[in-house]
Amino acid sequence: MNKEVVILIAEDDEGHAGLIRKNLKRSGIVNEMLFFKDGQEILNFLFKTEKERQRIDGSSYILLLDIRMPKIDGVEVLERVKADPILRKMPVMMITTTDDPREVERCHELGCNNYITKPIAYEDFVNAIRQLGLFLAVVVVPALNGEEKG
Fold it and tell me: pTM for this one?
């Protein structure tokens, strides 16, 4: 993956967030990674509602989005992102412990690009994140201003 693509990780569990970062790096991903502890924080960043931290026009992002988060859950974040004419191009990958088929289908209907179930076992979770890293290494991500970077 182009190292200019920023990986946004919205995950309220600090342990899972740390594992995601560590294992993406182990799989060769050197991209900048930004962490958000709840749905409101990631929406503030994406929709530029706070001065401290906000997305940059013309940049490329991938969002790794947990479903079960405080304040605003991941499904609502997904819905808002995919309803926005600029943000809808951004790839969104749901990463969650929930494998309820209705929730998987709902996320796909809303426009998620991938749905990854967090395995309960540590080694399985590590392997799933490494495989995600391999996928991210080859994906092309559009910039949010209409230009494509790869």
Answer: 0.85
